[in-house]
Amino acid sequence: MWQASGVRFDQVWFRYARRAGWTLRAVDAVAEPGHTVMVLGHNGAGKSTLLQLAAGVLRPQRGVIHDRPAVIGWVPERFPADQPFTTRQYLHRMAEVRGLRDPAAADAWIERLLLTEFTGTRLADLSKGTAQKVGLAQALLIPPGLLVLDEPWEGLDSVARTLIPQIVDEVTTAGGTVLVSDHRGEITSLPGAAHWTVSESTVHASAAEGGPDQDGPDEAEVIVEVAVRRREADQAVVRLRAAGHRVLGVRDQDVHGGSGAP
Ligand SMILES: Nc1ncnc2c1ncn2[C@@H]1O[C@H](COP(=O)(O)OP(=O)(O)OP(=O)(O)O)[C@@H](O)[C@H]1O
């Protein structure tokens, strides 16, 4: 089960050192449960700092961050790969640390994130993109109520890039909140996301533009049933969503009872 939660910045101030200038000042911003927020801003604006505050990795000097859920998944901009483990050892260890009774729960993410061929590779020998996927897998071992992704598309190949909107959608559909930073214009991959723009040490929030969350059900909509090959289902869902359509569900005829939207 994914968890329902949000996150609320209440007059949050942060600086990296006592005598340094404020990186963020008087930040007020709310991310509602079930919603995605794209965090935008130029290099050095403070996006990573804001995300680390949301994830609880950094603590504000002033102000409070409310409503953080118990389980937070954080994927840093650079996965710290200088650890003496292979991919499988690391993910199984992380599963144990998180209290998962069966560390093999990690294997489902290994498969989904196309990491199978790298299970025996040491983290230090992984490419940046593959290391990022290991970082993503560890953040998802327990379904997070808040998922924080810092530049998640960096270094990913085209197949892996399509997984990000799917995973974001799964977390928010279950009532969780996702914060995603982006400085490369991947913004269109997450239609319906609200925007927080970090500039001049503060955050300007704006509502989702034209996404299904904002528009709600449209009386003029019709339901079109489409059949696709099982192996192409994930791609089809991503393409339909990217084109602005609402995917209501995915049924697998061979699986008893079918399943919900991926
Ligand atoms: N650990 C740190 N110690 C001191 N200053 C830091 C630290 N991390 C970041 N900064 C500074 O804080 C400011 C905001 O950095 P941050 O990484 O949050 O920006 P960003 O918007 O994420 O940038 P980018 O898009 O380049 O990742 C920058 O001036 C940066 O140099």
From TrEMBL:
InterPro entries: AAA+_ATPase (IPR003593), ABC_transporter-like_ATP-bd (IPR003439), ABC_Transporter_VariousFunc (IPR051782), P-loop_NTPase (IPR027417). The keyword Transferase does not apply. Residues 7-226 form the ABC transporter domain. One of its GO terms (molecular function) is ATP binding. Keywords: ATP-binding, Nucleotide-binding, Transport. Pfam families: ABC_tran (PF00005). It comes from the Bacteria. This is ABC transporter ATP-binding protein. It comes from Paractinoplanes rishiriensis.
